[in-house]
Structure formats: structure tokens, C-alpha cells
Design a protein that fits this description.
This protein is α+β, with helices and mostly antiparallel strands. Helices cover 51% and strands 23% of the residues. The protein has 9 helices and 8 strands. β4 (54-60) and β5 form a beta hairpin. Residues 9-111 form the Cyclic nucleotide-binding domain.
Amino acid sequence: MDGLRDFLAESGFDTDQQRAVIKQFHRRQLHKGELFGQAGRICDQLAFVEKGIFQFFCDRNGDEITTYTAGPADFLVSLGSFLKQQPARESIRALTDSIIWVITKQAFTQLRHDLPPFETFYVGILEDQINCIEESRYNLLTLTAEERYQRLMAEEPHLLQEIPLQYLASILGVTPRHLSRIRGHIR
């Protein structure tokens, strides 16, 4: 709860507003391998990660493709599904034992309506997600696999220790074998 409270405080919410928002969240523990969201189902919850690492992934011809990872102080949501209330195209799995704080779509929408600073907060989250998606797409299209790996090493070195090799390879758009060659070349 402290992580969520701190995040809200850093986002400009006063103490009473923090209490109003936090009251709408409930704590949930997920074990390694457990799903938060599943492809084909409507995502009607959003979660704040207090502890843990999560993998966003989809299936392509029987192969799991990791599209994103999230860790502490990140949000979990299949955004298109949550916003449009359509079936999700991706699943979200805990890669470690995790603690998250979950809010329903209904409570989220009510907060947007009742608490003006929450609407501003919501727009900020959307803008961050759009920037993240754009950066990821740009990197995937313009950088080599080696350059993407070097950027990962510089910007998120903890992921190299916490995420299994096959998921890292998928994030970088390469096979695990190719990632091993890249790692050997860079060392």
C-alpha cells in the first residue's frame, strides 16, 4: 500500500484524495505463473504493482511472444480491452510471486467522475503508455537486436537478472539462441 500511496503523492494527490483513491483498490497476491489477465477475456481491472515482475504476452502460431514487462510502481492492464471493454489480445502473467493493488473498471470510472485530479492522473497514465508504446515500436523498427540489448542493459539492467532468457529474447524480437550470441559478443 505504501508504494501506491507514494505514487499518488508524487502525482500530486493530497492526503484526503489519496485516501479516496486507495479505498477503491484491493490487495491481491499472485504466485509465479499465475495470470492477471487472459487473452480473449475482457480486462475489467487495472492494477498497481507493489512487488513482482509481470510478462505481457500473446500467442503467435503456438509461440509465446512477450510484448512488454512490468515491475514495481508500474500498472497492469490490457489497455485496449480495458478502455473499449473488448476481449484482450494479450495475457499478463506473474513471473515472480507478486503483490498488486487492483481497481475495477467501474470504480476507476467513478473516480474519474467524482475526483477531478484523478481525471488528470488518468490522462497522464495514458500519455505515459502512448510514449512507451511509441518508443518500443520505434526501437524495434530502427535498432538492431544488439542495439536493443545494449539499451536494455543501460536503461533496465535489473531485468537481465530477473527475467528468464526466453522472455528477454522475445522482448528484443530475437530467438533465445540469437540473444545468447549477442550476450557473448557484448561481454
